[in-house]
Amino acid sequence: MTRWWPGIDSWINLSRVDPDAEVQGEICLDVQMLEDARGRCLRCHVLQARDLAPRDITGTSDPFARVFWGSQSLETSTIKKTRFPHWDEVLELREMPGAPAPLRVELWDWDMVGKNDFLGMVEFPPQVLQQNAPSGWFRLLPFPRAEEDSGGTLGALRLKVRLLEDRILPSRYYQPLTELLMESVLGPAEEDAASPLAVLEELTLGDCRQDLATKLVKLFLGQGQAGPLLDYLTRREVTRTTDPNTLFRSNSLASKAMEQFMKLVGMPYLHEVLKPVINRVFEEKKYMELDPCKMDLGRTRRISFKGAPSEEHVRDASLGLLTGYLGPIVEAIVGSVGRCPLAMRLAFKQLHQCVEEHFPQAEHEDVKYLAISGFLFLRFFAPAILTPKLFDLRDQHADPQTSRSLLLLAKAVQSIGNLGQQLGQGKELWMAPLHPFLLQSISRVRHFLDQLVDVDEEEEAGGPARALVAPSVIVREGYLLKRKEEPASLATRFAFKKRYFWLSGETLSYSKSPEWQMRSSVPVSHIRAVERVDEGAFQLPHVMQVVTQDAAGALHTTYLQCKNVNELNQWLSALRKASAPNPDKLAACHPGAFRSSRWTCCLQAERSAAGCSRTHSAVTLGDWSDPLDPDAEIQMVYRRLLLGRDQLRMKFQEDPNTDSSPEADAEKSSGATEGACPDALARPREAAARLLEVLADLDRAHEEFQQREQQKAALGPLGH
Asked: Which terminus of the chain is more solvent-facing, meaning fewer CB atoms within 10 Å of its CB: N or C?
């Protein structure tokens, strides 16, 4: 079941922001309004806060909360050196005579020297306190200012936000549709018209292709079939292309799928190739400009000249700086054949063969190179150079001067990727001083592309677990808090001990410190699930669980706490990558913990009770991306296919001029269409019928699931 909420689509005026007053994070409160013989009392339970702004040089804060109600105020204790404080303190304030007052809770960073630093605030008007006392997590806000709305003088930003509520069924319901999708890539791509992939390609237009391509690539990667998917889509595109100069230049499903595949599989490779030079550009902040219309001679003080500065001086100095950066970039790229992921090389080899078969003429000799360089240089390397933050190469966006330098470098790399075909053409003739360097690089790039596709491995492209994690290489290490196996009598906060962890493709090991000789370890092959843990399980944030199985078949759970959400995501990613090939993954587990003789998540009293939440068993392909979630991805594909169901029926099953009986279908197949092969007519009909049947089964499953949920809700807690 899918429900769309209206959301917003409007222009919002930008406001001025004081960089020193920016706030972030949330606070958890439980407020009650009580009344006794002495009058009314406000009880504010300040539980905890998370992801507060770091105000100290250590990257943490010393937060305390200050509660205001009317003319009264109270403070909590100060928690030192944390951005995730836990107070669990109750502050009570008595109502004073006068008009009803709002409740305001402020967070401050305590400083021994100087004034305290503001961390954020929340405020609740009197009517909210009277009608529905606040309880839960609340986003911290800055102090309101009179000039908050500038009336559009700073510009405006148009936002379009929609909320999608989707029901994800258990995996078994999606298996038939998954099998149909996998079968789609095995048939002749050029003639396909009724498979799920063919229907999706025909239906999906514009911006939707990006999302669909990402979902399909993740889904097929999880099944180890990304190579056949990309081959299927590229063959369909190549077959439809008559002018080789336009091949893969549009945002087709094939182009978007290959682009997303490179981002998912090739991010570590991209970082290894580009990050050293990108860091140099950011750190050195050299002024570079070749366009006379954009030169600022007043900024040439950054370059050492003899005599008065001129455009020629700036151009010559900029040319030297640009080639000084481009040289290492080209060297890193052409020398990276062995570091390029096998899955990418195999995908490029398939693409190379497909294009060469379709355009065998001598005048199209460059097309097979341009097809690969168009993806690798124009859609991977050049965009990463232009906007490093979007590819996780830098934490922050570049300043204007550095951004211009990156643009010049990206243009040069793009020209190299085009194999010099457009040099000297167009409006950017001011790039001419770079042309000799670019032309010298092109022959090296051709040789690099030949080497890249010279791979003879029989392994299928799209086996991410085999390609991404080496057995003996340490892929992640650092301090984590580890919970003891059975903390019988210790308080929760003492049940976690600080340990240093190492993760390789073979073992997850830990000790008291990096130098400690004694290590404990768990074979990665024993891991059966790696999942997040609800904060309520231990009243702690950023906790994950690693479920392992010993030789006797017994399951053991280790709880690990990370210092922040980014570290949690990175460890989840690394552990799931390392354990991806493991058999017998758990389909479900408990997102809570077994404490006080019951599970905190589902309240079941048996420790051995079946898990109440499905697991994310497939591999995470990069620390920057979300884990693969095959059920969510196939649910999105199912929603897309529903949009084309009526069109599919009309095209292959409904014909107003003929009888819809099997006998009539057989007659039409045998002779109604002159010169047509009966099999050619029957195959699309059969494929369409199978797809429509699978969609109908999923419809029924969603309806039954919804009915069961409604029945449970009607019964209430006692009905369980």
From this structure: C
Cβ 581 vs Cβ 593: under 8 Å: no
Burial of 209 (0-12, 13-18, 19+ CB in 10 A): buried
What separation in angstroms does the CA of 490 have from each of 94, 487, 494, 496, 497? 37, 6, 6, 10, 12
- State how beta strands 26-36 and 39-50 pair: antiparallel
CB 637 within 8 Å of CB 200: yes
Partners of 117 in the β-ladder? 109
Q: What are the pLDDT digits (tens) for 355-368?
A: 988 888 888 888 88
Q: Which fold has domain 261-300+309-453?
A: GTPase Activation - p120GAP; domain 1 (1.10.506)
Note the CATH architecture for domain 26-160: Sandwich (2.60)
Encode pLDDT of 325-335 as tens digits: 999 999 999 99
Q: At 10, list the tokens.
A: 């409007």
Confidence at residue 667, expressed as pLDDT on a 0 to 100 scale: 44
Q: For 605-650, give the secondary structure using H, E and C.
A: CCCCCCCCEECCCCCCCCCCCCCCCHHHHHHHHHHHHHHCHHHHHH
Q: How far apart are CA 289 and CA 325, in angstroms?
A: 14
Which pLDDT belongs to residue 412?
92
pLDDT at 315: 86
Domain boundaries, the chain: 26-160, 261-300+309-453, 474-614
The CATH classification number of 474-614 equals 2.30.29.30
* Residues in the chain where the model's pLDDT stays below 70: 1-7, 16-21, 145-153, 189-194, 205-207, 298-309, 424, 426, 457-472, 484-494, 617-628, 652-681, 716-720
What is the pLDDT, as a whole number, of residue 6? 61
> 122 forms bridges with which residues in the sheet?
105
Contacts of 95 by beta carbon, 8 Å cutoff, 6+ apart: 39, 40, 41, 42, 69, 70
Is the distance from CB of 527 to CB of 534 less than 8 angstroms? no
Do residues 641 and 198 make contact, with C-beta atoms less than 8 angstroms apart? no
